[in-house]
């Protein structure tokens, strides 16, 4: 049986720069279980997004291990990592990152299309999520025709549709008003109840305090702060 | 072959947004380039095929399919009977040809004198069909048939007398003199083949043999086949039968002409395929720009779990779709153009008041065109391969891209 959904062991991450090596993280050890709702906090530039990057298998650690369902990602090929992401990980980006050539609903169903699922069923499912996020009336609009908040909700809908075990969200409510932020968070709670793990980076203390626990990034280290 | 996602992404790439106007222009030029390249290739190849077929038909009409020359040995009736029994569906005509001079009205011209057996009509079927003045029925002993160009040059008409001199000599008290005979013009033919109408004089076989001081067994045999394209096979069979005789097929006699035509056709094909290659470069540049513009989208798709291979395939499909539809459109335009080429020529000649494809230069009354399925298939395959290669090269560059850098992080 898989103990942890995600385990970080002695992780170190450096970036090469023309002025020398930048050390981002050193000796990070974290375990994420299914159903965990985790807030990632820290000042701007502390490396929250880079950390999510590593968790999303979009980057490799300089040293240490990232174990996803007990499998060291270092041993996976790019194709295998793509497959792991497709089946297990959804990412909500800080600046939405919607596909500009596709309408809102097409953006939402894209993860299911990639999985080669039935288009009609996927559309129905997407429409329901867009309804829950109060943006169904914008389903056939292109991202350029949506406001920042609407784009963010579409991005969240896209992450939610594939019902992956792990959702990584980089300031998902940054562009949203208080009410919608609350709605999004309540959606996260629902997902948590479905045994999905959610790690979200945020500057919003109120939301962070509602998480099971917080991971605070500061000066290359990550500390766990138990919440609620 | 292509998944739903790959097809969908490829389809969207084919509909560039307004701000990607330059990309749209490149896509249109790629399409037009390949379409025109394919169409031109088909038109030119069809005209070349038609040209070759028309000229082959002319040559086959003017020349026997196989010629057997005695080469100093005897060609006797027993051999002719042997051929007739051994090979069905052939027609044998006895002939004799040689170089000579025609003298008339104080004019002289070097010509080819050809004696034909007028009891076998196959040998001069072409003359029967193309008699301009006089009649083949009048073609008897001591008469000749001459070409229209020769008649015009020497100012001759039906009923006129001409002197023919051969390369055979007769001994006289004054020394050796070329053998000559006076003959009457029974008819003037006009095949439309300048060289033929200008240089050939036909007479009866006994007259020709007498003029060249030859015996009957020194005659040549001209063989006409039901399928002239099998002349070379037939030639080999006869050659095996009688190794001492000289045997030529019609393609042997016109080897240099057909080689020139073939070389011309191949060179034309190579030159015109360059249009396709240049057009394919448009696909390469268009796709390269598209991939560059879509770096962020590619990164997003990867975060959604779409594999590198699928992304490559979707961009490959974008380029290939342009190439495929351009090729199919090019084939349609090319075939329609090739089919109506003569009407188009007439229209352009009238409209531009210009003589396109003058018949006296090309020996043909109309612009020939023969749509050859094999040529079209070859052009289709070639164009598709070029398009596939042009789409493959930029698509492969995706694997080298650091796509995640395109995603903005802290």
SSE topology sketch:
The complex is a heterodimer of chains A (228) and B (410).
Chain A: E1 6-17, E2 20-32, E3 37-41, H1 48-55, E4 63-68, E5 71-72, H2 78-88, E6 89-92, H3 104-114, H4 119-132, H5 148-161, E7 166-170, H6 178-193, E8 197-201, H7 205-210, E9 213-218, E10 221-226
Parallel strand pairs in A: 3-8, 3-9, 6-7, 7-8
Antiparallel strand pairs in A: 1-2, 1-4, 4-5, 9-10
Helix pairs in contact in A: 3-4, 3-5, 4-5
Chain B: H1 4-13, H2 21-62, E1 66-69, H3 77-86, E2 90-104, E3 107-116, H4 125-129, E4 131-134, E5 143-147, H5 148-154, E6 161-172, E7 175-189, H6 194-199, E8 200-204, H7 205-211, E9 220-225, H8 231-241, E10 246-249, H9 250-253, H10 255-293, H11 295-303, H12 308-339, H13 341-352, H14 359-362, H15 373-396
Parallel strand pairs in B: 3-8, 5-7
Antiparallel strand pairs in B: 1-9, 1-10, 2-3, 2-6, 2-9, 4-7, 5-8, 6-7
Helix pairs in contact in B: 1-12, 2-10, 2-12, 2-15, 10-12, 10-15, 12-15
Summarize this structure briefly.
With 228 residues, chain A is α/β, with parallel strands linked by helices. Chain A is built from 7 helices and 10 strands.
Top keywords for this entry?
heterodimer; A: 228 residues; Rossmann fold; 6-stranded mixed sheet; 35% helix; globular; B: alpha+beta; 15 helices; 10 strands; 54% helix; 20% strand; elongated
How many structural domains can be distinguished in the coordinates of chain A?
A: 1
Elements of chain B, N to C (H/E): HHEHEEHEEHEEHEHEHEHHHHHHH
Order of helices and strands of chain A: EEEHEEHEHHHEHEHEE
Number of domains of chain B: 2
Unreliable sequence segments of chain B: none
CATH topology of chain A: Rossmann fold
Q: What is the name of the CATH superfamily of chain A?
A: P-loop containing nucleotide triphosphate hydrolases
Radius of gyration of chain A: 17 Å
